[in-house]
């Protein structure tokens, strides 16, 4: 149990490092917003439900089915450990 938890922390740390290299992180979500997204709730509008987009490397693009805000997220199972808002440019 202890070993599983420490290895999970190492994985999260490595994923965060890769995520920071992959993106500018200018629109990074707060810890509170990450908790909301991990439970399937949009931190923008409170809608419960995301459409999954393309996955690239350690991250995946998802879109809120309510306000259509897109996010680039890094997750382990259902737990989202890093996320950023993507520009609403289209
Ligand atoms: Zn939304």
Summarize the structure.
By secondary structure, the protein is α+β, with helices and mostly antiparallel strands.
Description:
- This protein has 90 residues and is an alpha+beta fold.
- It has one domain (2-85).
- The protein is 32% helix and 30% strand.
- The protein contains 2 helices and 4 strands; from the N terminus they run H-H-E-E-E-E.
- It has helices at residues 2-22, 31-38; strands spanning 50-56, 59-64, 70-76, 79-85.
- The protein has a 4-stranded antiparallel beta sheet with strand order 1-2-3-4.
- A hairpin with a 2-residue loop joins strand 1 and strand 2.
- It is globular and about 40 Å long.
- The model has no long low-confidence stretch (mean pLDDT 85).
- Zinc ion (ZN) binds next to loops.
Cα-to-Cα separation, first versus last residue: 46 Å
Q: What portion of the residues fall into strands of 2 or more residues?
A: 25-35%
Biggest sheet character: 4 strands, antiparallel
Q: Major sheet: order of its strands?
A: 1-2-3-4
Query: How many individual domains?
Result: 1
Which spans of ≥5 residues are poorly predicted at pLDDT below 50? none
- Helix and strand sequence: HHEEEE
Ligand list: zinc ion
**Radius of gyration (Å):** 13 Å
Q: How does the overall form come out from the CA principal axes?
A: globular
In DSSP terms (H or I, runs of 4 or more residues), the helix count works out at 2
**Total number of beta strands:** 4
Mean pLDDT: 85
Q: Which range best describes the helical content: under 10%, 10-25%, 25-40%, 40-55%, 55-70% or over 70%?
A: 25-40%
Global structural class: alpha+beta
